[in-house]
Protein: Protoheme IX farnesyltransferase
Amino acid sequence: MTDIGVPIKGQADDADSLISIASVGDYLALLKPRVMSLVVFTALTGMVVAPGHIHPIVALAALIAIAVGAGASGALNMWYDADIDAVMSRTRNRPVPAGRVAAGEALAFGVFLSCASVMILGIFTNLLAAALLAFTIFFYVVVYTMWLKRWTAQNIVIGGAAGALPPVVAYAAVTGTVTLESLVLFAIIFMWTPPHFWALALFKSGDYEKAGVPMLPVVAGAGETRKQILLYTVALAPIGMLPWFLGFAPLAYGIVSAAGGLGMLWLAVDIWRRPDDMAPARRMFGYSILYLFALFACLLGETLVMRAIA
Structure:
């Protein structure tokens, strides 16, 4: 224990009973801002694609509520996973395992933000959107973080539903319904998640093994992981084109999604054909982020342009 009462890293039992000295940046880090930015972007796309009109103030409040809900999920994830995070090189400097934020503070912060985000969304939009946001938080924290992540190699597959729900929540905030269009956006993110995270898991498998997390490369081996990345990417490529096939995205989106899907397939094949080289997996991880961003940016931009000229 240090002189000023800040717990030394590794003294987890004492950390819960202490008030840590943390900066604003530490609390922002608890929210997983990079994940939050993706959530906000996909939610904004779902909101714009939704038919009907929403007042700009209501739309802003809804996006803030969804963002805060995502941040709350991140804080609760860091609270529960502090033991795992402390072992992994990628996460050991997060605020809780590094001792800058006490675990109890992270828990209280996450619970408060969860409740506030659901209440705000319900007040400004509708009960369905609020219920979907509450379910998203519950699914990510309880189903994925507390159960799936530590017990099955399918953690990313099933748990990916939480990350795929924000556009559905935003769509419901506008329309009060869940429709085929919002479910297609869900399906794109849901199918994108396994190849994206398994690519990361391939070149970080040592970290997951040390932490005892049953990621697919640890449980089934790198060969099976490469095969699964290829299979999921084969399924993802046509699903990424569904907005164009179903008529709620114009031709430009169809071209972007087809080209992006071919790029994903090329990388997946490259990963499968080069089992002793981690470079393709690293490229897949980075490219997959650009792929998802391109799909939603194209859908968002084209929808806004079409409405402007209508």
Residues 24 and 166 are 26 Å apart (CA to CA). The chain has two domains: 1-178, 184-310. Confidence is low (pLDDT under 50) at residues 1-18. The first helix runs from residue 12 to 15.
